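Z., the sequence and structure:
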Amino acid sequence: MSVQEMDLGFDPDELREKYRIERDKRLRGDANEQYQEMVGDFTHYVDDPYIGEEIEREPLTDEMDVIVIGGGFGGLITGARLKESGIDRVRIIEKGGDFGGTWYWNRYPGAACDVESYIYLPLCEELGFVPKEKYTHAPEILEHSHNIGKKYDLYKDACFQTEVTGLEWDEQAGNWIVRTNRGDAMRARFVAMSNGPLNRPKLPGINGIGDFKGHTFHTSRWDYAYTGGGPEGGLDRLKDKRVGVIGTGATAVQCVPHLGAGAKELFVFQRTPSSIDVRDNRPTDPEWAAGLKPGWQKERMENFNTLTSGGIVEEDLIQDGWTEIIRNLISMANYRGKGLQRSEIAEMMELADFQKMEQVRARAQEIVNDPDVAESLKPYYRQFCKRPCFHDDYLPTFNRDNVHLIDTDGKGIDEITEQGVVANGELFELDCIIFATGFEVGTDYTRRSGYDLVGKDGLKLSDKWADGMRSLHGLHTRGFPNLFIISNAQAAFTTNFPHAMDESAQHISYIVNQCLSGNISTIEPSEEAEDAWVQEIISQARLSESYQASCTPGYYNNEGKPNPVSVQNATYGKGPNPFFKLMKAWREEGGMQGLELS
């Protein structure tokens, strides 16, 4: 059956034009520069409100085999895999007061994972743990992070409340000097940087952002002393407060229902609506959990990863909104029986996407009573132009009399004054502004990490990467020996981040063990191998350029301003599964291909 013969219930050409119009409303020349960096008068937004007491210690000048920067999932998984392989002298440096990373900082009411917890929480099988809900909430995720630290003895040498301020390669000693805000000058033979894709909060660069006389905070530093309640909600101290929320992404979707229930009045300022699909969270079935067989988590992770990267499996083990679009595609195209050409698959994929987003828009229409508000909450873009959201209470919140959606039709907020927020030319007087504006993604790596690196012959990473990232496998960069970078850039992108982190951790553990057992003092990529990998990334990234350019602005497409650096810094274009296979084959070959050894 041809596309023309299908009874779609919508006109694809009309939707393409609608998507283009909505994208064009939101295009800005400043792209990522629209955000206010949290420096100077804005540093209080990144203070740690969760520290019970300050850790006092003397500066360290000792030496480790491996120092891991970042105590979130990436750092914990790397530490765990290193410990499993027999490497004991491992130190994790973390600016927070404990392990957890994103889940240490994000304690806002309603915070939960949006990828099913059975695959999202790492090392579940190793810890003999099954989460209590399909989408478990932040407190359990934070506790699981602590339990990983305990199981693998990662607390022993950890440095909390510590920020790295610089890394310098000592050529004579053949190791890294790691400097911190505690006066440390510790050394490590290897350094693994797991700073995380979501670690540096951002503020919108709105005129007058520092003028507001009321209370303000960022969702990653939730102020329960002001709101009352806790992660489960019950924000009783807001009952006489007029609250404004700026941002309508994944964080706002989870906390807005609690704010709507607690505040006297809530104003949600929207530039672009999120895609809000069914969440359908539920408790874990004890009988199902008891029947899980060895290897269950890896099997589920790989099943989900195959589906969300466009592959076909016999059975969808996850059965959620993330995997539904590929199920639509299979159903629409009778995929396995057709032998479709690549262009036909792309066409069918677009139609399946349109179909899915029509469902999402119909859901807003059905749930929200006010037809104008419902229309404003309908997303007009492809499903994966932005991170899809799944929630059953967000849309109904706009049926509350005290909750007001302030839709700016893509323009954003005009300004912030002493009294409140001006949008669409109208002043909304507020007692509190909450910034649900997320984290920096497309900015320079050294800005997000908070420090620069000095490698061989005084080479700075910021200079080397000034015109784009250069690496082998996204993990090594020439001129910076014995350094590992855990990131999506020039490596695998997965919807389920911890899966890719674990693949990187296993690779790092393999290389470190090869070096320690084989009397190899340093490794770094050859110039030829690095050049070839960069060209591979660029050539593959070209395939998705038109898709990204057609998307509404967001952090997936550098806020609507793709550039040559974005292409070079892209993820591995063939998808995560081919990347993981490539890395596994690299390890099995055993010759450390592309790395210079000394």
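The chain has a mean pLDDT of 91. Residues 478 and 525 are 5 Å apart (CA to CA).

Let me know what you think.
H.
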